[in-house]
User: Which sequence fits this backbone?
């Protein structure tokens, strides 16, 4: 299986190298998105993620296929967490492995950039006295 | 018409799923549905974008809606 | 400590996310280089890495400083393995974490590209019937 | 002159460390040392590049060599 697609409550960052490892891969690039403590100088207490799961999994699968078509990749991982996440928690992991490093970097960047545009997952920033759905308003 | 709402769309209508009766204006296409929603809930007009998914895929404005479709209201996504 | 520099016998890929994690980081990019089974259609039995350790550590430290100066990064990791490595073994790990993802990607790419050009580490490809010091000859 | 050899340079001279006596030609600078090595071991001329490190830092051709310097022969690196 050359792609691993998951939506989970808790992301495991330990296993991703093993999942992307492949005898024909010389390069593995992984991106992890995590919760930052400050957004525009406001302290974030937590993030809340929700998803339309059946559609999100389809979009993530389509995204993996697009990367596999665009570059010669041996493995692709796309995982997203949902629920409440606190500072330093991992919220998304994307990665690709390939014979040479350029492909793995380009594919990894494509995966996270595209995921943010297309996959139906919504993030609410919880501050001390308010909460905001990110990107909802111009 | 049975509709699913997520993120801020859920907050706007107050529910994650509801059967909405548009009466005479019952929308036939995705474009019609967006219009009907914005008319009933002006807050939808203030969003950065508004998309509709039919059977868990993004649907263009000209897609026709059938009574047994799973229709979801997709406000601006913000994963990652 | 905002940089972790190591030359080791065995690379641990499990801990790198934790090492790069930081409350001000929203993006973490990691690149792992691993042993490929084939080079130009010839089967590789193993790679042998040797280093001029005191100089390699100095160059890796200088490389981390160059990245920290060029981008706003919260953490940088540069680790290289030495000794005999077999197919799928990790040989190098570089990574950077930053507030936004672009910096982490750019810094990570810079780290591996520059490491390959400047750090005194040498790789011998062991094939069935011969061995070759990589890049030694034009 | 006490020299360290790595990678293919070690294979060329057959040792990882050796005291090399250049006699009358004893090199004073990095450039001189490269010349002297290539003269004694023509294999060095066939390499993609040849660098010298003095006290574990890359040294340019005009760097002067002192008797207590740690001098290393650096063939093309290939880490990663």
Assistant:
């Amino acid at each position: 299986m050359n792609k691993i697609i998951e939506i989970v409550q808790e992301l495991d960052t330990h296993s991703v190298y093993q999942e992307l490892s492949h005898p024909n891969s010389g390069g593995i690039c992984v991106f992890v998105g995590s919760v930052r403590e400050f957004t525009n100088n406001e302290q974030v207490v937590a993030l809340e993620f929700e998803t339309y799961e059946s559609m999100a999994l389809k979009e993530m699968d389509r995204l993996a296929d697009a990367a596999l078509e665009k570059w010669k990749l041996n493995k692709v991982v796309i995982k997203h967490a949902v629920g409440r996440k606190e500072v330093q928690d991992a919220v998304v992991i994307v990665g690709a492995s390939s014979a040479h490093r350029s492909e793995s970097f380009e594919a990894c960047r494509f995966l996270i950039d595209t995921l943010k545009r297309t996959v139906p997952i919504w993030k609410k920033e919880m501050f001390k006295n308010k909460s905001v759905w990110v990107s909802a308003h111009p | 018409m049975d509709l699913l709402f997520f993120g801020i769309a859920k907050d706007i209508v107050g529910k994650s799923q509801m059967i909405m009766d548009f009466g005479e204006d019952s929308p036939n296409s995705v474009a019609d549905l967006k219009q009907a929603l914005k008319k009933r809930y002006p807050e939808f007009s203030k969003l950065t974008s508004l998309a509709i998914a039919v059977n868990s895929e993004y649907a263009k404005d000209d897609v026709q809606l059938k009574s047994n479709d799973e229709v979801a209201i997709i406000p601006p996504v913000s994963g990652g």
About this structure: The first strand of chain A starts at residue 3 and ends at 8. The beta strands of chain A are 3-8, 27-34, 38-39, 42-51, 75-81, 83-85, 90-98, 121-127, 131-133. Residues 3-125 of chain A form a domain with the Aldehyde Oxidoreductase; domain 3 fold (CATH 3.90.1170.40). The helical segments of chain A are 16-20, 53-70, 101-118.
